[in-house]
Amino acid sequence: MKTIYEMLSEARICASTEVPKREFLFTWNGTPCFPRGELVALTGKAKSGKTYVCSILMSLMFRNRILCFSRKNEAGTTSPTGQAGTASPASLTSPTSLTSPAGRAGTAGLTSHTEPAADAFQCRVLWIDTEQSEDSTHEILTTRIGTLCGGVPDDTELIAYNLRRYNWEDRLSLVTDSIALHKPELVVFDGIRDVVGDINDYNAAQTVISRMLSVASWSNACIVCVLHQNKAIEDRTLRGALGTELQNKAFETYECRKDSDTRIFTLTQTATRKYDISSRLNFTVTSDGLPTDTFTPEPDNTSATTSGTTTAPAGMPPTRADAVEAMKQILANGRQRTWLQLRSELMSRCGIKSQLYAEQCIRFAHSNNYISRTAKENGIALYMLAPASETTLFSG
Which of 141, 197, 239, 370 qualifies as a FRET site for 316, CA 20 to 30 Å off? Predict the structure, then answer.
């Protein structure tokens, strides 16, 4: 057993310390993302596309490019197939080899979750599913990932475990032992909530996240932890004490959203310790199961009329300025609306087709003090005109 001095000596960092360069699995339009040896949080409301985004990430380990994502080669010169690293402009390019590398055969029993097994066989991707049925996991593996990859990856390259059958007390050790067993580059942990009994237990949250950070460090895997946002529509924070701790410790956080009217999925980076990604990925899924880029209009701020009607050209969404004026009319004379009521009336009044864009307009108006929000009562907040907005016109 190591002494305290030995442990501190190993942990000490000096200016002369040779620290391995951080590796990233992917790039987003050229910007590195999803680092190895770190936790990444993937969040969103229920049924917002989190599992589909996970499918894209897992499939990307066997492709050169999917949508805005490219597989980042570690040397910066070659892709996993040994080809030139330049990605094809197509949304989906030829898959890499799906055969198992020679020398990876081998088995090992479950190990201690403090160190990886020396004789375990490696894989590129480890998928831990704690939420869905075995049928759903199998269908995603064979149908969705199979479609994205142009063929189902070899069972030794993408390993999936469905742990829903086990008690939550047993799952965390199974997760960490499976990482030690297979030593993957990418781990998709969907979802981390299912390894604690009480999501608001701060001691349990600290224990789980601390343990996963340790696993990420010694395994050098990028561990994507999937966790829902809070249920209130306007509350986009990660759920519970576990969500708070994950948000604090994650290297990056990504948010998934879905517009139920247009069926457009949106992926946004909301936090990072290194490379900011300001662009959003908007995509839909075609009838053959493949994602395709789309565009969600988000006009720039322009001047608004004061006549009480919007001025957007036919067939185009209103500007944010017009939306603010419409909200002033909706909330005039002291009227109050819930989030859902305000969104519905704004969409009806302005002819907005996208719930996502309507919500962006509401958040814009609130963050710029055109409207205000009361404290929640019984879990429901009310929106009203901010005092200055009753007399001040939109100015930019």
Answer: 370
